[in-house]
Specification:
By secondary structure, the protein is of the alpha/beta class. The chain is built from ten helices and nine strands. The strands form two sheets. Strands 5-4-3-6-7-9-8 form a seven-stranded mixed β-sheet, with helices on both faces. Strands 1-2 form a two-stranded antiparallel ribbon. β6, α9 and β7 form a beta-alpha-beta unit. α1 runs parallel beside α4 and α6 runs parallel beside α7. The mean pLDDT is 91.
Length: 292
């Protein structure tokens, strides 16, 4: 593409080919990305692109689209370029200070909702909230739930609060290094998507994760630094019968279950995501447990 007058359809087709070839994506995924970039560049809905596929954008519109395309071809994630990402059917603001919400994390939300009857004001804690997508979604799906979300990053909390405000979700946000600011507080459900990648994992230098905050991805030499700490400290913050559910890497399920068992959690189990990979593990505090 050289900026000559071409139709919307041709611009998106050519961009799809370049994205697929340069980034090694499938054609369908590349087309979705091309449309997302065009919709953002021109401030339209993706449906408009289909309805106006024979339109010819003016030179400024074409230049704006091509500028975004070049950034994507250089590796910048589409979510950071557009500032938005869909999660559980809602659009969330995202930026370089937070992880990009991923479809597999919706499993964590689904499991959380299964423990939250719609008519009960149960207490929920989201650890390392990032964009707030988990906490905000739970609060919107269960309006009576009393939802708290923590993150150690002030920038992440600011973005999470922006999402909660935009989506009108009632969430209490606190700056905290995991449970540090929650002394004496107990919850019926604790969920989290903590860092779980080993610090020297070569995947940290590939794809979109190159641009995501390292502190939200890597956790020690084996990737278990934060998982160990959370599982160790969670029982002191769980109400009797409360549940803890954590996302982890697909090769980390066995050790995560062992850590949960060592923390005296009951009914320990692992669930698979849509790709049939072990993605989240959890356990329940004893009904007779009395938090210190």
């Amino acid at each position: 593409m050289n900026g000559a007058a071409v139709t919307v359809a041709r611009l998106i087709h050519d961009a799809t080919v370049r994205i697929a070839d340069t980034l090694g994506l499938g054609r369908r995924e590349a087309r979705i990305e091309a449309r997302a970039l065009a919709a953002h560049a021109w401030q339209v809905e993706t449906a408009w692109l289909i309805a106006h596929d024979t339109d010819i954008p003016d030179l400024m519109q074409t230049a704006a689209f091509l500028a975004l395309l070049e950034q994507r071809l250089a590796g910048q994630p589409v979510a950071y370029l557009t500032g938005m990402r869909e999660f559980y059917g809602r659009r969330f603001h995202v930026g370089p200070d937070v992880l990009i919400p991923r479809p597999e994390t919706e499993l964590l939300v689904e499991r959380a909702l299964s423990h939250l009857p719609a008519g009960q004001p149960l207490r929920v804690l989201d650890l390392g909230t990032g964009s707030g997508c988990i906490a905000v979604t739970i609060a919107l799906e269960r309006p009576l739930a009393i939802v708290t979300a923590v993150d150690r990053s002030p920038a992440a909390l600011a973005l999470a609060q922006r999402n909660a405000s935009a989506l009108k979700a009632a969430v209490r946000f606190l700056q905290s290094d995991w449970f540090a600011a929650l002394a004496g507080e107990h919850f019926d459900l604790i969920v989290g998507n903590p860092p779980y990648v080993a610090a020297d994992d070569p995947h940290l230098g590939r794809g979109d994760v190159r641009f995501e905050p390292l502190a939200a991805l890597a956790a020690g030499h084996d990737g278990f630094g934060d998982l160990r700490r959370i599982i160790r400290d969670a029982p002191a913050h769980l109400a009797p019968g409360g549940w803890l559910w954590l996302e982890h890497g697909f090769e980390q399920a066995e050790l995560t279950r062992r850590l949960l068992q060592e923390a005296c959690m009951q009914h320990v189990q692992t669930l698979q995501d849509a790709a049939r990979l072990p993605r989240i593990s959890g356990g329940q505090a004893s009904e007779k447990f009395t938090a210190n």
